[in-house]
Amino acid sequence: MSIKINRPGLLTTIQDLGRVGFQKYGVIVSGAMDSYALRIANLLIGNEEGEAAIEITLTGPTVEFEQDALIAITGGDMSPTIEKVPVPLYKPVYVRKGSVLQFGPCLSGCRAYLAIAGGLDIEEVMGSRSTYLRAGIGGYKGRPLKAGDELAINTPGQQSARLIEDLSTSSNGPFSTTSWRVTTNFLKPVSVNTIRVLSGSYYERFTPESRRSFFGQTFKVTPQSDRMGYRLSGPSLQLSESFEMISDAVALGTIQVPSDGNPIVLLADRQTTGGYPRIGQVVSVDISLMAQLKPGDSCRFKEVTVQEAEQLYLKREHELNELRTGVMFKF
Amino acid sequence: MTRIEESIPFDIYPLSETAIILQFGTRIDIHLHRRVKTFTDYLEKYRFEGFIECVPAFSSVTVYYDPIRVLQSEKNGGHSLSKNRSAYDIVCLHMKKMVGELTEMKEDSPREVEIPVCYGGEFGPDLEFVGKHNNLTPNEVIKIHSSGEYLVYMIGFAPGFPYLGGMSEKIAAPRRSSPRESIAKGSVGIAGGQTGVYPISTPGGWQLIGRTPVELFCPNDTIPSLLQTGDVIRFKPISLEEYNEYKEGVK
């Protein structure tokens, strides 16, 4: 059982929740830029939430199903269609053998996730199937997907099988889907996104004006943005006094400021350590929001405390738990 | 930031709501490095519930944790009075306790690793520049570079890339004004007063003086990095024939 990539799209890679436990060896975490969307996609179709899926960037691939399959598409809306019929997001979709999934214009967000019941039959490297582009390991041959690639799919688990049974008899179109869906805020168009941030360990070292600008003004995502990090433009952020900074660890969402004064938000493919002053840290639950911004989009930063960030984190995990339980009853 | 006056001074603060930084100082210094190393070893040996991983750097250790598991373990431990404690508070307490215990820790003697290097020629296009910059012949540069003992302060920048201390100032050289688009895997270079080895092919502005046939990044091994924080390394000059033999031997 497999799927075939007829056209690759802009940057289509295999990602899961990342390579955890090897940062002290300089091995980056990688993984889905919007891990929340990836987890939901997997939960919808009865996969383990951390199963590897296909991350799609702005321009989607064309995917041919060589076998019946149960899929879910989440994250940004890239106008997916099967045989010209629009495919709903955030819903389990049963696809018939021979169908071709295509993507159109990007209507919202920047990245979509295509998860397939059973998961992709790909070997783990250091405990993960995520593509580590720079080192050329993980994912499919350590690289983005190309035209002609064939990806083998594992046999779906029991939960998925039940849903497949229901959906396979429910219609004669190129695909069929459930009557239920997950509601999500990602589908709302937003012009200015407010990203919640902890002030970083070097925040106080920036000039009062820079600190005011950081939490008061709007920043724009520049085209020099990728899976490693987003370079932002906006008011220039300057240190009160320059100082010798020595490298230490940086995390997902760390906002560092090189001497040119333009902040960089570090994302999935960030290095493990960094040597620029950290002005802030995007809270975990808002990483999705950040990762769905595309070049030209704007954002503002709002300060929260570490306790608030932790509460948001716990609430988000609680919601995912409820979704997990809710979906289970649907099968 | 909380300042704790224990026998070992350190600062502790959040990097995020799932990571905490322990800072033993703000210098590159062998004593601080030893503290970082000892603490990291200790932490990995006595992992607390919810510990994910830690990243040692020059003078700090960053600890990643899962807030849910930290809180769960606190609950299971019957600490019902500490209901309002955040996972962050709990991890802070774990860390402070561990640093307190650190004074009794014995340091392990460092691992020594020899790295064969084929200097100059096609592999070291900047060897001559480094020599000229310091009024030395290429052979003198090789001799100085390969007679030193280098401490792996930390691994970062790229998988298995060691930040090394201990290079002689006599062979220091500025970075190239325009970086190379791609530097071959195994390249040995100099940038300012630092020397390093590139485990994977990447762009970079270092002055290249040689190349090692040894793999520094081994993704299929249990420990994917040849070098680890705290190792002591030496460079051993080898000929092109030896380099090729080594490469073939691996195949």
From TrEMBL, chain A:
Highest taxon in the source lineage: Bacteria
The organism of origin for this protein: Evansella vedderi
The entry's keywords: ATP-binding, Hydrolase, Nucleotide-binding
Protein name per Swiss-Prot or TrEMBL: Antagonist of KipI
Lineage: Bacteria, Bacillati, Bacillota, Bacilli, Bacillales
Pfam families: CT_A_B
SMART domains in the cross-refs: AHS2
Presence of keyword Nucleotide-binding: yes
Alphabetized Gene3D superfamilies for the sequence: Cyclophilin-like
Domain Carboxyltransferase, residue spans: 24-319
InterPro entries: CT_A_B (IPR003778), Cyclophilin-like_dom_sf (IPR029000), PxpC (IPR052708)
Stretch forming the signal peptide: none
TrEMBL record, chain B:
Keyword Nucleotide-binding set for record: yes
Keywords per UniProt: ATP-binding, Hydrolase, Nucleotide-binding
Pfam families: CT_C_D
Annotated SMART domains: AHS1 (SM00796)
InterPro entries, per database record: CT_C_D (IPR003833), Cyclophilin-like_dom_sf (IPR029000), PxpB (IPR010016)
Carboxyltransferase domain mapped to chain residues: 10-227
Highest taxon above the source species: Bacteria
Lineage, opening ranks: Bacteria, Bacillati, Bacillota, Bacilli, Bacillales
Protein name (record): Inhibitor of KinA
Organism expressing this protein natively: Evansella vedderi
